[in-house]
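Renewal narrative, Specific Aim 1. Our central claim is that a sequence can be written position by position from structural information alone. The example that follows is taken directly from our test logs and has not been curated for this report. It begins with the structure tokens describing the chain, in the order in which they were read.
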């Protein structure tokens, strides 16, 4: 029993619109997580097979070296994103 002129009950809660927006964005992220991990997992498996011909050709050409490095970065990214695929 306080002498406060305004009780906590008088303060209305904020509108539910931001919470609904937050729920919608969470649902979207959850629905995209599975397919993204699936594609990244299999891309991480397939990309090294593209590296082999580049290595067999040699990395003397700067363009080939650049493509090799870009594929290597893509492979590391795919490994990172797809590492949790099919785990409970």
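The sequence written for that structure reads:
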């Amino acid at each position: 029993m306080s002498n406060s002129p305004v009780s906590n009950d008088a303060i209305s809660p904020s509108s539910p619109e931001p919470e609904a927006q937050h729920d919608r964005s969470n649902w979207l992220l959850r629905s995209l997580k599975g397919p993204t991990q699936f594609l990244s997992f299999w891309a991480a498996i397939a990309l090294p097979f593209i590296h082999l011909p580049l290595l067999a050709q040699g990395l003397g050409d700067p363009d080939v070296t650049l493509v090799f490095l870009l594929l290597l970065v893509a492979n590391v990214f795919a490994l990172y994103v797809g590492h949790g695929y099919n785990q409970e």
